[in-house]
Amino acid sequence: MRLSDPDQTGRPRAIPIRGKFVTLEADRLITAVGEQVDLSWIPHELIKNGLIDVNPSHKIFAGGDAVDQPRTIVTAISSGKRAAISIDLRLRGDSRDGVFSKIRLGNKGSVSMEAYLSGRDEGNWPVPKNIISYDRINTLFFEHSKKTNMRKLRLDQRQRGFSEVNRGLSSEEASLSASRCFSCGTCNYCYNCYFFCPEGAISLDPFHQAKYVDLDHCKGCGTCAKSCPRNVVEMKEVQ
What we know:
Oligomer: single chain
Helix content: 10-25%
Strand content: 5-15%
Largest sheet: 2 strands, antiparallel
Radius of gyration: 26 Å
Distance between the termini: 72 Å
Number of strands: 8
């Protein structure tokens, strides 16, 4: 395709270039252009403001751009997860009442699939891991590293064709960017709690991924929690 004069909306027209097309055979073709939702097969009473009205009483599962929510990848994935859990509950004959509140993460509506799968058979869902915010991370123990910025096509090149604007990251850049993750809330056996404990009451077994605290000698000073880079160690009062 090549760009031509603007159309009635002000956007440049895309004109086919002769000889630049190939024909491929396919068993099925799904066309997806723009953000319009095909609601022709949905009963009228299930449509609200041009979108599917997701309501437990309607017994219909929908997500992504078909429902009233922010049109982002994150929310689309989240709605897919919620739909999967709701469908599973319905097929198992279980009620969804109260389930989502038991597997919720944080205060923004995210749910833990791990927590759901762990407790669905017994109906006893484990408490999901806490969301660790930035202010709860001990950044003193992390080496500062610069953000890896994605390469982009120059503006003058963008106007001359349909090449991808975001050029992505190289394997080295992607690995470097991933290495900047704090792994918050996850113990990676850095041994800080072991080294900083003044009583030597902590022992770690990275081979079996286990941590042990000798409660007979622990004074509850909290040094292990203060020295944990990722806010894994929590101090709790034992009755």
